Description:
- The chain is mainly α.
- The chain contains seven helices and no strands.
- The protein has one domain.
- Helices cover 76% and strands 0% of the residues.
Amino acid sequence: MAKLTGSPAKKNPADAVELQVYRILIFGLLLFVLVAALSIPFVYETQTLWYKIGGDKTMLRAAQLVGLLALVLLCVQIMLAVRGQFLKRLFGVTALMRRHRTNGILVSLLALGHAILVLAPEGLSNLPIGKEHWPEMVGIVLLTIVLSMAISAHFREKLALDYKRWREIHKLLGYSTMPLLAVHVLFVCESFEHAVPKFGLISLLFGVAGAVGVSKKAMRQAT
């Protein structure tokens, strides 16, 4: 078995084939998670959609799909940020950094699109603000964090931000998105009141947390 450290192997054909198999498995797993996530609004339809028709129903359905896509890609973003030895071996540091940057922009756009699609049918006069709308308020905090991270990362040099300090804050904010995401999704969306999607979401988040922990431990042992 190929030793999964360093940069992508190119010399040994057997190692190259094995690494390609790992890449296919990873993309296959990601595709499965995406398909499973995007099927939730259809299999476990929320009661909110029962009372909507026409364009309003279409926008709310799209909001759910866009939000779930952002959820999955945010989990991917955490993994890309950690850049564990396994992923470095498969894709190389440069490719991981490039995908992290691109995926971060995509996540921020999806999160913003999700918020717009949710608010559009109701209008700005019905903003979900108040104690009774605390799950939505958590979503607003999460959106603010995601947008702040994307903007500060893209314009860090223009904003003259110290890299070391920015990196620590960026990392802290990145990890904070996971619990906020769990709270927002579990309590704002009726679809996740059902056992299967709830278990799936919790498993995904714990899986990401576990993978981050294993990667961090491996990196500490390697130094």
